[in-house]
Amino acid sequence: MSNSVDEQKAERHRAKMAKRKSAQDEEVAGKTVEEKGLLIVHTGTGKGKSTAAFGLALRMIGRGKRVGIVQFVKGAWHTAERDALAKFGDQVAWYSMGEGFTWETQDLARDIAAAERAWAKAVELMEDPSFALVILDELNIALRYDYLPLESVVAALKDRRPDLHVIVTGRNAKPELIEAADLVTDMTLVKHHFAAGVKAQAGIEF
Amino acid sequence: MSNSVDEQKAERHRAKMAKRKSAQDEEVAGKTVEEKGLLIVHTGTGKGKSTAAFGLALRMIGRGKRVGIVQFVKGAWHTAERDALAKFGDQVAWYSMGEGFTWETQDLARDIAAAERAWAKAVELMEDPSFALVILDELNIALRYDYLPLESVVAALKDRRPDLHVIVTGRNAKPELIEAADLVTDMTLVKHHFAAGVKAQAGIEF
């Protein structure tokens, strides 16, 4: 009796999973474009926007590809990831072009100049065929404060090499960028330990 | 005249940023707990749950810490990240305990046995003081299908060493787990290239 109940449960499980596998296989078979560089946007108020971009860098590195990273505003942050990625030598090119958080500088002209330098570096990396992935970390912040002309930035991202993957991170992604993107994820804050009075933790926040 | 407008704009910017900086400083000063291992959950239907966990692994590695990773169901995936992390030798301990996607196996008893083995490994890593971070990749899937007893899993996560960070990934995180967690992010799908007929890309999806 109990054995029969177990068998029925196992059979239901088998049938459900077979159906899911079949749906999965069909979905994969329905894809028509084999290779395409993706424009990826990580936005939202939650954590993981830059971190997931660095995780994708790791994946690309594991496939033997080169990754370029331009930081638009977090000059002083992500030093731990940078230290770790240094292990991969020439496979990673890292450029910290920002001057700390924008609310640390309080100088509009300097912020704009820094954003323009960072964007020039971004264009350079996107044009270099040795890179399979270019991460434009916190570019959304530079766009949000109008440090860079939105229209020409989006146009340049759309006109990138067909095989180049680009990841743009930062809160408040512009609708025009989302429209141009292939893959957009909103990292949504559900619960944060800062609210419970816990300080930023080494290895987690920085 | 135009100069004066520019100056006013710069002044407004300076004042706004100074206010933000002050709010930021106050927030940081308000934190009372210096060091605390966090229970972090990455859930949601969007991309970046596992990837952001691997990005945090990179950050921990950059700070000289050891990271343990247990994969509950994605046996065949994340091979590129695993290859890349192998570069860090003993700093990373990686255990693929799943047997591929659950809908590939269609065998309930085998899935449960695999989940139990993975959980035993997770407990072992959590008890080993050499690890600063343990990633339980796709544990949420094992909990969702009741492959593991929710109550005792959540209890074990809550009772972990006070200095241990744990990241649990996977869709459909159980409310009991979210309740126990310090930091929860929902990776929300905004737009996906699969919908436009683009196949999974090497270095991005696998």
UniProtKB/TrEMBL annotation, chains A, B:
Q: Where is this gene product found?
A: Cytoplasm
| Major enzyme class | transferase
- Classify the main location: cytoplasm
EC assignment: the record states 2.5.1.17
One family from Pfam that matches here is CobA_CobO_BtuR
* Annotated region (Disordered), positions in chain: 1-28
Biased composition, class Basic residues, residue ranges: 11-21
Biased region (Basic and acidic residues) positions are 1-10
Q: In which pathway does it act?
A: Cofactor biosynthesis; adenosylcobalamin biosynthesis; adenosylcobalamin from cob(II)yrinate a,c-diamide: step 2/7
Q: Which residues form the Cob(I)alamin adenosyltransferase N-terminal domain?
A: 8-28
**What's the catalysed reaction?**
2 cob(II)alamin + reduced [electron-transfer flavoprotein] + 2 ATP = 2 adenosylcob(III)alamin + 2 triphosphate + oxidized [electron-transfer flavoprotein] + 3 H(+); 2 cob(II)yrinate a,c diamide + reduced [electron-transfer flavoprotein] + 2 ATP = 2 adenosylcob(III)yrinate a,c-diamide + 2 triphosphate + oxidized [electron-transfer flavoprotein] + 3 H(+)
- What GO cellular-component annotations does this UniProt entry give? cytoplasm
Q: Which GO terms describe its molecular function?
A: ATP binding; corrinoid adenosyltransferase activity
GO biological-process terms attached to the record: cobalamin biosynthetic process; porphyrin-containing compound biosynthetic process
Alphabetically ordered keywords of this record: ATP-binding, Cobalamin biosynthesis, Cytoplasm, Nucleotide-binding, Porphyrin biosynthesis, Transferase
Main function: Required for both de novo synthesis of the corrin ring for the assimilation of exogenous corrinoids. Participates in the adenosylation of a variety of incomplete and complete corrinoids.
**Protein name, as recorded:** Corrinoid adenosyltransferase
Q: Which organism is it from?
A: Methyloceanibacter marginalis
